[in-house]
Automatic annotation (TrEMBL):
It holds the Pfam family Methyltransf_25. Residues 191-217 are annotated as: Disordered. The keyword Protein biosynthesis does not apply. SUPFAM superfamilies: S-adenosyl-L-methionine-dependent methyltransferases. This is Class I SAM-dependent methyltransferase. Residues 42-136 form the Methyltransferase domain. It comes from the Bacteria. The lineage of its organism: Bacteria, Bacillati, Actinomycetota, Actinomycetes, Pseudonocardiales. GO terms for biological process: methylation. GO terms for molecular function: methyltransferase activity. Keywords: Methyltransferase, S-adenosyl-L-methionine, Transferase.
Length: 217
């Protein structure tokens, strides 16, 4: 029997190798954070071990990080304590999230959307629409499905699919190609042979989308 998504990710976070945990926020989203793009109360959706959410908290924002993996949340809380940063981290399935209505001015998503199946993607967008205040903003970094893309597991999204997801209740403000860094172990065939940067991280093919929640539907 195949593992549930929760069990799959919990097993990865319990292990020694977390391919997407590069020890810092993904540069494509760190750029936005450092430029002051985040405003108000912030949700880090699919926060993992908390690097992005903690970078936002360091700038003085109230931050909530949510992830399906209890182990990831444990690691994020540990990082927050070690860095003396205030952030709330909770284990939950964000596609089934209740509460938090109109709670957030900004949502950042570093690699969550592309791991969800199509039905879960639609549930997730429904949650974002509910928890993001009218006029609030969302930034998503995900793998891209484009010719010649370098992405693991065929998890990339097409431009058409992303635009479809962010139609009802959203205004897309920016849509652009962006790199996604990961640490790919040896023994994965072609993926292990992909180029690496000077820190052993593999640049992969992604999208960075920024959208704003419409004030009226």
């Amino acid at each position: 029997m195949a593992q549930s998504p929760k069990a799959e990710f919990e097993a990865i976070y319990q292990g020694a190798h977390i391919p997407w945990d590069i020890g810092e926020p993904q540069p494509a989203l760190a750029e936005l954070v450092n430029a002051g793009w985040c405003v108000g109360v912030v949700l880090d959706a699919g926060c993992g071990t908390g690097e992005l959410g903690l970078a936002v908290a360091r700038r003085g924002h109230t931050v909530t990080g949510l992830d399906v993996s209890p182990r990831a949340i444990e690691l994020a809380r540990r990082k927050a304590a070690e860095r003396d940063l205030e952030a709330r981290f909770e284990a939950t399935d964000i596609t089934e999230l209740t509460g938090y209505d109109d709670a957030f001015d900004t949502v950042v998503d570093s690699g969550l959307l592309h791991v969800l199946d199509p039905t879960a993607q639609e549930r997730y967008l429904g949650v974002l629409r509910r928890v993001c205040r009218p006029g609030g903003r969302v930034a998503v970094l995900c793998f891209a499905d484009v010719p010649g893309a370098r992405t693991p597991g065929g998890r990339g999204l097409t431009e058409a699919r992303l635009r479809e997801l962010f139609t009802d209740g959203w205004e897309i403000e920016a849509f652009e190609r962006a790199g996604v860094l990961g640490i790919i172990p040896e023994g994965l065939g072609e993926q292990s042979e992909w180029p690496k940067d000077d820190r052993g991280r593999t640049p992969m093919t992604g999208w960075r989308l920024r959208a704003r929640r419409r004030k009226t539907d």
